[in-house]
Design goal:
Blueprint (H helix, E strand, L loop, with lengths): L1 H5 L2 H22 L2 E14 L2 H4 L3 E4 L6 E9 H4 L6 E6 L11 E9 L7 E4 L2 E19 L9 E9 L2 E7 H4 L2 E7 L9 E11 L7 H4 L3 E2 L5 E19 L9 E9 L3 E5 L1 H9 L3 E4 L13 E6 H4 L4 E3 L6 E10 L2 E7 L4 E3 L5 E5 L3 E7 L2 H4 L8 E5 L6 E10 L5 E2 L3 E9 H8 L1
Parallel strand pairs: 1-4, 7-10, 13-16, 21-24
Antiparallel strand pairs: 1-3, 2-7, 3-6, 4-5, 5-7, 7-9, 8-13, 9-12, 10-11, 11-13, 13-15, 14-19, 15-18, 17-19, 20-23, 22-27, 23-26, 24-25, 25-27
């Protein structure tokens, strides 16, 4: 019996078959055959040079840059394969370049998964082919709100290279307005070079999307450039001098020249600031910019600082780019006196009210002989306002001016005054 069992090949084969079936059943229970769908798998374009060699370029619409891939097989083989799936669209496989749209077949590979167990949807994708264009752009540098260390300003800042050639689909290149290198100078105290990312703006002044930029190439081979930052020292207390062009009308004279602001701060190279220091930290305003020919009243001129600043200097950040020059023109034998409003006497003010002046001083223009004018000051002027019948509120009131003997007032004087209740003022103070 034992010998018969050993020589029974039919029984042996049946045993193997039964064992295989049992193994298959167990495997299907523990590691079943499934279909796994992977969505939004990126399509890689290959052999782009095939199109570019014809002076053309290509791009995919954003809606066709991904596909869905289905893998069939044991669960252990087809799950967690996201990084193993390679989807390609080979441009050499285009059948008809004259079709609309131009379709490219899509192929998929996944390690250890046979081709018959892989399906892709869609199997072909449309591709846009158009003329290739190249344009040159100067690279602007932007350091935004970043500021260097105390006592420093950005003197010079430029990209290297300063110009870039951008190539790509004509429809995208034509949309480009400017190329900007963004860099931070925050806290810098020494000159240095920094790597900066290039940002491309379209004609709507919006940053171009990555989906468009991916089809662009740069002659520098990268979307980063070196930016050189040169820092300048700052100096404050810079004043102005001016000799106006021309003469006022007969019988009038220049009483004074005032600039607003009276002084500014500048940044500059070491040599430029040293030269400025030797000149007493003063900047001379050219006569041609301040003309007073035949003037009978004050002359006011707005001066663009860029026109008058010495070479190698610039205004500091957050400072006005211009100044106002006012030339005071007075009749001969006259004088302007600045009278503090606190010196004004208030008459007939209703009980319980108090005056608050809008301005801190008033200009009083007087005439007389020079020797008498020399002795006139704010202390020798008596000034009064009359508040008869006035309630709380703001008023423009004439100022009665009493002058020393032989001195006359050239123009009427008025002031803006607010009448407030004492109780209101006390409450506000508390």
């Amino acid at each position: 019996m034992k010998q018969r069992l050993k020589n029974n090949w039919t029984l042996k084969l049946a045993s193997v078959a039964i064992a295989f079936v049992i193994w298959l059943v167990i495997s299907n229970i523990n590691d079943p055959i499934i279909q796994k769908v992977y969505s939004n798998v990126k399509v890689n374009i290959t052999n782009g040079s095939y199109i570019e060699s014809r002076g053309m370029t290509y791009r995919l619409d954003s809606s066709h840059q991904t596909v869905s891939v289905t893998l069939r097989g044991n669960s252990s083989k087809v799950t967690k394969r996201n990084d193993d799936i390679v989807v390609e669209a080979d441009l050499t496989q285009i059948v008809d370049m004259d079709s609309t749209p131009i379709m490219v077949p899509v192929t998929v590979k996944c390690k250890d998964i046979s081709a018959e167990n892989i399906t892709v949807s869609p199997t072909t994708i449309p591709i846009e082919i158009e003329e290739r264009e190249t344009k040159d752009f100067m690279i602007a540098v932007n350091y935004g709100d970043s500021v260097p260390g105390a006592g420093y300003e950005v003197g010079k800042i430029y990209a290297n290279p300063e110009k870039i050639s951008v190539s790509g689909p004509q429809s995208i290149v034509e949309k480009i307005d400017r190329v900007v290198a963004n860099v931070s100078v925050e806290g810098m105290t020494v000159n240095s070079s920094k790597k900066a990312d290039l940002v491309i703006y379209d004609k709507n002044q919006e940053i171009m999307s990555d989906k468009e930029i991916q089809y662009l190439t740069f002659d520098i081979g990268d979307s980063k450039v070196e930016v050189y930052v040169e820092l300048w020292n700052t100096v404050s207390g810079i004043t102005f001098t001016c000799d106006p062009q021309g003469q006022p009308a007969s019988g009038y004279t220049v009483a004074g020249i005032v600039t607003t602001p009276s002084e500014i701060s500048l940044a500059g190279t070491a040599d430029a600031l040293e030269t400025l220091k030797k000149n007493g930290n003063q900047i001379e305003i050219p006569s041609r910019l301040v003309k007073i020919h035949s003037a009978r009243d004050n002359v006011e001129c707005k001066i663009d600082l860029a026109e008058i600043l010495p070479s190698g200097t610039k205004t500091v950040s957050n400072q006005a780019e211009s100044i106002i020059v006012e030339v005071e023109i007075l009749p001969l034998g006259s004088k302007q006196i600045f009278l503090p409003t606190q010196n004004i006497q208030t008459l007939n003010l209703k009980q319980g009210l108090q005056t608050v002046f809008t301005d801190t001083s008033l200009t009083v223009t007087v005439r007389g002989r020079q020797e008498e004018l020399n002795s006139v000051s704010a202390a020798s002027i008596k000034a009064q306002i009359d508040c008869s019948g006035l309630e709380e509120g703001t008023y423009d009131l004439p100022v009665t001016i009493t002058l020393p003997d032989n001195i006359t007032l050239l123009s009427e004087v008025s002031t803006s005054v607010q009448l407030v209740s004492l109780q209101q003022k006390i409450s506000a103070a508390e």
